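hi! just following up on the protien thing from before. the input was this:
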Amino acid sequence: MATRTESRAVLSAPECCPAGLAEPMTRESAESLAQILKAVADPARLQLLSLLRAADGGESCVCDLTEPLGLTQPTVSHHLKVLVEAGLVRRERRGTWAWYSLVPDRIAEIGALFC
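and the predicted 3d structure came back as:
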C-alpha cells in the first residue's frame, strides 16, 4: 500500500495549475480549475463518476445509468455531457448508443490538488 508521500509523487495537479493549491494561481488558472470543480460539484455527477469507475469493463451505456440515479435519460445525458466537456469522462459512439468511461489521469488530477 502506498504511503501518503508515495501518492504525492505519482499524482500531478491539473495542467491549469501545476502547483495545485500550494502556490498562488493566476485568474486564468483559477477559472480553468473552477470549471473542473463545478463539473464534479453536483451529486448526480459524483454518482456517475462512481458508477463508471465500478462498471464492468470500466464503461457504461447511458441506458444503464438512468435507473441507479433515478433520473431520466435526457437528464443523465446532460450530466454526462458536462463531465465530458470537463475532460473527466470520454464518450464513444457505438451504433445508436453512447458508451462512457472515466479519464483516469484527469480524475487523478483532482485528487492531486489536495495532497
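Residues 1-11 have pLDDT under 50 and may be disordered.
The two ends are 16 Å apart (CA to CA).
cheers
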